[in-house]
Structure formats: C-alpha cells, structure tokens
Specification:
By secondary structure, this protein is an alpha+beta fold. It is built from ten helices and 31 strands. It has one domain. The strands form six sheets. The chain has a nine-stranded antiparallel β-sheet, with no helix packed on it. Strands 9-8-13-12-11-10 form a six-stranded mixed β-sheet, with no helix packed on it. The longest helix has 23 residues. The chain starts with a helix and ends in an 8-residue tail after the last strand. The structure holds MU-OXO-diiron and calcium ion (3 copies).
C-alpha cells in the first residue's frame, strides 16, 4: 500500500454500505444464465461458420478505424491516420502572469495561475456565434487529486502509515490545494489546437475558491462551521472527477472521493456513524495537519459541505460556483444530463463506491430554451431518485422525498435537507440496488438509451450477485444499458440489459461477454467514463487496466451498440504507463476527440517493484526530459487530412 491508487482501492474495500438491502436471488441468475447461454451459443455458431464477414452483412460497422495494439509502455498511442497532440500539461500557464513551470521551484502562488494536476473530466463548449463551432470554444477541465510522490522531488510516497506525511510541509500542502479544482481555457483550432493566451474566460478554481451552497439543504445547521455560520459559503471543491455540460451553457463538476481529505478522531463526533457510511476520515492527505477544517474532531460539519455537484458558469469568470444540494451528497462520479420530452432536465448520477447506487435528478421546471439565463437556478428544485434493478429486466426509480416511504423523522430524516446530506442513508432505507461501483451514467441523445459504467467490485461474493451485478469478484466491471419507459427520461420505470461484461472474453473462466468478433486488442477492463459522439456512437474510457491485470494500459475503446455487431469493441487510443484515461469529449463536428491523461507514471495497483516517483518514474511522458517528471495532460486527437473520429 505504497501509492495512492492502491490506497484508494483498499480504502474502498471497507465497503461502507452496511444496509441489508435485498440482493436478488437465484431465479435471476438462472434467467441471466440462460440468456448468456443463448448469446454464447450464437457466438459459437458464428465463430464456427466459415464466412465470418457474412455475420456483419446486415449491420455496417459504425467504427471503421484500424484499431491499435493493446499493451503498455512509456508512450501513448493512437489509431493509424490520427494525430494525438498534447495541448495542455500540468504547470502550463492558464492566467496571465503565470510563471514558466519549474517543478523544483513550485509555489502555491504559481500553481494558482497554472494548469492543475490530474485532469479528469473535460467538456468543450463552442463559442457562441463561432463560424466553426468545432474549432473555437471553452475547454473546462477537472483537477481531481494530487500525487505528492510524482509532483515533488525527493519526498516519495507520503500517505502510507509508515511515511505518515512526515515530509509534507505547509508549503507543499498549499501547492496541492492550488493544484486541485478546475481550469477553464479558451481553445482554438487552426493548423493545430492552441490555448488562447490571456483569454478573458481563463480561470482556475482550487480547494480554496469561494463557492455557494444552494438548494434545499443550503444554510442547514449541519452545514454551518466556525468559519461560516451561514452554512452557505464553502471554500473550494474537492476530488472533482467527472461531470457534464448543460444545454444552458454551464459546467457541472462532481466531488467524488472527498472523504480522502479529512483526518481526526471520530470518537465523540456527533455524526460518527454517518461519517463511517461516507468513509470519513479517509486520511489520504496531510491537509488537516495545517488546516483545522480538514480535521473532523475540530470542525465536525466541514465534511457535510463536500460531496456535491458544483455548477459553474464558464462564460463569467467572476461568477461564484454553486454546490447544488438538490442533487444529493455522495461520491459523485459524473452528472451527464438530457432534456426530457416534456422539457424538464434529467441528470444521471453515479455514486462510485463498492455496493453504492445509481441516481437520477429530474428538475421541477422546464429548460427555458429562449432565455438561457432563466435556467440559472433550475437545478435547485426537483426530485432525486435512486435505481432499483429487478431480475426480470425492468427497474424503477425510487424518489428520495421527505415523508415519502421510510424517509421521515422517526428514521432520522427530519427534513429534505437531512435526506440530501445523508443521501446514501436515505437510499439504503429505500432498498436501492447495490451496484459494482457506478462511474459515468450517460444518456445517448440519438437513441434515448442510458449507459451505466460499473467499473469493478472485487468484494462482491457469490451470494451477493444479482441480475444487474452478475459476477462475484467482479474484477473487470460491466456496462448496463437502460431504456426509459416510453423513451421518457422522467419516467419512473425502465428496462435494462447488460451490454457487455468486461475482461478477456476469449478466456471462458472470466465470463466476459464482448461480441465474438472483438479482437485480442478490442476488449477492455474497468470501464469508467462514457462519451457519445454526435451520431450516437459509444466510446468508453477505462481506469485500472495494467500489464498484470489485463495486459494493457488504460485507454479509449469504441463499442458498437446496435444490430448484429452489438458489443463489438475496438481499441482507439492508449495511455502511457500508470495513467488512467479520462474525459473523452467530442467537438460537435466529431472532428476532434479531447482526452485527459490522468496520473501518468502513477504506480499501478498491483505493481510489485518500488513505487514510481518524481525521481524515478515509470515514464516521463509527455516531455521525456530528465529534469521533468511525468505530467497529466490534455490531448487533442484529430484525423490526418480531416474527417470524423472513428472513421
Ligand atoms: Fe474518479 Fe470514479 O473515478
Ligand atoms: Ca480518476
Ligand atoms: Ca472516473
Ligand atoms: Ca475510476
């Protein structure tokens, strides 16, 4: 347990969901087993037939690019005929006055003006009125977390029990806090993509940026602290993982593993059991050593002010971001939304923890399509639901509403604010389905279907399997496809199916299910982020592949979803060693795919040697200079000579 990825994985081993929600029984496994059998027998028939291409006759392949070889090494790779341009690296200037990046003389002041660490979600918003909307716009980027062993020379890994953060000074902690949060960049494509210098939209958000709590829980006494007696004014956002863009031009950025930043004894804490359900304190950073607000024994309510979806207006750099409490508090992965038939906005949400839940939020009011500013606080009113997946391939959305069902004062929920602050506990009480770590949940605007990436869950036992989470010790994760009733995203029921079970489908014991024509390079493990191109094509980014787990680095795969090729996956891009793949996002013309290479050079979870560090990293991507550590970076992928990505 010498590096953050492994520490994070192990902390999730606790599995904070101790509710005894039913897992669905054997009948379902029988049903699923039979369906899998049918699929597999079709697969065998196809493979044993002489003319394989005949199988594809009915459905033309959506993705015609030549796939890359799966593998791992110090460099990144993209499909033949494509360019992968490093656009922005950790430490590159964002705001005017930013000093040139010097990793041995870094300061918090410099870092506040420079691109932060560990870029995760990214979104591209075309500049209003741009002649070519795919060539000029704002790029919004999350900076999820920091790796002290890769950022700072000579200190090595600090978050282990043995190291005990002994070398973390206040100066280093301040740099870490400044490297968190987000960046807003104006970008333009001419010959190549460039970041517009001194743009009036350029902005850095950090762990100290003033943010307003809004919605039903704002101002509640459980959100008040010594520094903020109003319960409405928070400093910063933490561990922003994935997110989404709204049709009214704002950016939703999601606080995921906020538990990591807290320390301090829970004994005597007024909400000790609730802290436990959220994995607090996570003890993965030294911040509480220097700032009382990150010590739960000194500031008991501070953790309640994190774990929210934050809405930011990227076109107004002076605007105060808002934490939208109506969308609940949990380890928010993403917040991808879609306008429903009746004009209301629906946001799909995953809570990324073993045995946690899939949610959606439906606004009370409709999106105003003529006056975008009128949607300013649309996300403050609406209904949050949690998903229950049934064994017959249907499912229902259970409302998290005060005084409905068990969500009342007798059960510890005195108000809607309590339900939102303790969303996980409220969802436990409703009997939601415990999932294998929900990451992105994303609606396909072309087909109306919703994709759920379940990344893995190696703690699920055989007794705990159910139809929606059918594998015990689910090392490689799976993808669920949901179809809302009546193609209405506000509907309270849905149908669902498993699109694929990840892992090597050529090894029977893995019990993976890709389309049989998927090559040795085309399968993947650990799906995380989901992107959908403008024609409805599905693209998956992964987190957690490694040479010893899957014989491959993380990257991007394109997956067919329709017709006879459904479940056929092809490998498009792969990251350098130790990185995870984040943020895939297409420009509206589908001619650029932006990806975020997060934590290149991080020690892989199952790596047996000494940890990868600043002084001795597994890669120095993307600079490959002896004096430069690996740097998390944004990459712009384009087709040589022009054309749609994937063609
Ligand atoms: Fe930050 Fe759930 O990935
Ligand atoms: Ca991540
Ligand atoms: Ca993620
Ligand atoms: Ca992940």
């Amino acid at each position: 347990m010498f590096h953050r990825a492994r520490a994070a994985e192990q902390s999730q081993d606790i599995g904070t969901n101790t509710s005894n929600n039913d897992t669905i029984g054997d009948m379902i496994n029988q049903r699923l087993g039979r369906r899998d059998f049918l699929k597999n027998s079709l697969a065998v028939a196809a493979l044993s037939s002489v003319s394989l291409p005949a199988m594809a006759a009915g459905t033309p392949a959506r993705f015609t690019f030549k796939e890359i070889e799966a593998g791992s090494g110090p460099y990144h790779h993209v499909a033949e005929g494509y360019d992968a341009q490093v656009l922005m690296r950790w430490g590159d200037p964002v705001l005017s006055g930013a000093p040139a990046f010097n990793p041995t003389a870094q300061s918090a002041k410099a870092q506040e003006l420079q691109f932060g660490y560990n870029n995760d979600y990214l979104g591209f918003i075309p500049m209003p009125g741009a002649a070519q909307p795919g060539r000029h716009g704002l790029l919004v980027v999350n900076h999820e977390y920091t790796n002290e062993e890769l950022m700072f020379a000579g200190i090595g890994v600090q978050e282990t029990k043995e190291a005990a953060f002994a070398k973390m000074t206040k100066e280093l902690v301040d740099i870490e806090m400044a490297a968190h949060g987000g960046s807003i960049l104006e970008v333009r494509r001419d010959e190549k993509w460039t970041v517009v210098e001194a743009s009036r939209y350029a902005r850095r958000l950090t762990a100290n940026t003033p943010i307003t709590l809004s919605g039903p829980a704002a101002g509640h006494e459980r959100l008040r602290t010594k520094e903020d007696p109003t319960g409405r004014a928070v400093k910063g956002m933490l561990n922003n993982c994935a997110g989404g863009l709204t049709p009214w031009g704002t950016w939703l950025t999601c606080e995921e593993n906020f538990s990591y930043y807290f320390r301090g004894a829970k004994d005597g804490h007024p909400e000790a059991a609730k802290l436990t359900r959220y994995g607090i304190p996570g003890n993965m950073y030294a911040w509480g050593q220097f700032y009382d607000r990150f010590d739960v024994s000194k500031e008991p309510n501070e953790p309640n002010r994190f774990g929210w979806v934050v809405e930011i207006d990227p076109f107004d750099p002076t605007s105060t971001p808002k934490k939208r409490t109506a969308l609940g508090r949990f380890k928010h992965e993403g917040a991808a939304g879609i306008v429903a038939k009746d004009g209301r906005y629906v946001v799909y949400l995953g809570d990324d923890e073993r045995f946690d839940y899939v949610y959606k939020f439906v606004t009370k009011n409709k999106v105003n399509t003529t006056d975008l500013a009128a949607n300013r606080d649309l996300l403050d009113e609406g209904t949050l639901y949690v998903a229950r997946y049934k064994g017959d391939g249907t499912g229902e959305w259970l409302p998290l509403v005060h005084n409905q069902g068990p969500l009342n004062a007798q059960n510890g929920f005195a108000s809607q604010a309590d339900i939102l602050i303790d969303t996980r506990l409220a969802a436990d009480a409703l009997g939601a389905t415990k999932m294998d770590r929900p990451e992105d949940v994303e609606a396909n605007p072309v087909t109306g279907k919703v994709y759920v990436a379940l990344t893995n869950n190696n703690r699920r036992t055989a007794e705990q399997t159910d139809a929606a989470n059918p594998r015990a010790v689910n090392r490689f994760g799976h993808l669920i496809e949901m179809t809302p009733e009546g193609e209405d995203h506000t509907a309270l029921t849905f149908r669902w199916d498993i699109l694929l079970k990840a892992g090597d489908h050529m090894v029977a014991s893995t019990n993976a299910s890709f389309h049989p024509q998927t090559s040795k390079d085309g399968w993947f493990g650990m799906p995380d982020n989901v992107a959908i191109d403008s024609r409805g094509g599905l693209w998956i980014a992964t987190d957690g592949n490694s040479p010893s787990k899957t014989g491959r680095a993380d990257g991007i795969w394109a997956v067919e979803t329709e017709g006879e090729l459904r479940g056929l996956s092809k490998h498009f891009y792969r990251t350098p060693a130790g990185a995870e793949m984040c943020g895939p996002f297409f420009t509206p013309d589908d001619e650029t795919l932006f990806v975020a290479v997060q934590h290149p050079g991080e020690t892989e979870e199952d790596f047996k040697g000494p940890p990868s560090t600043y002084d001795n990293p597994t890669t120095r991507w993307p600079d490959f200079k002896d004096a430069m550590p690996p740097r998390p970076s944004i990459v712009a992928i384009t087709k040589r000579g022009g054309g749609r990505i994937g063609s």
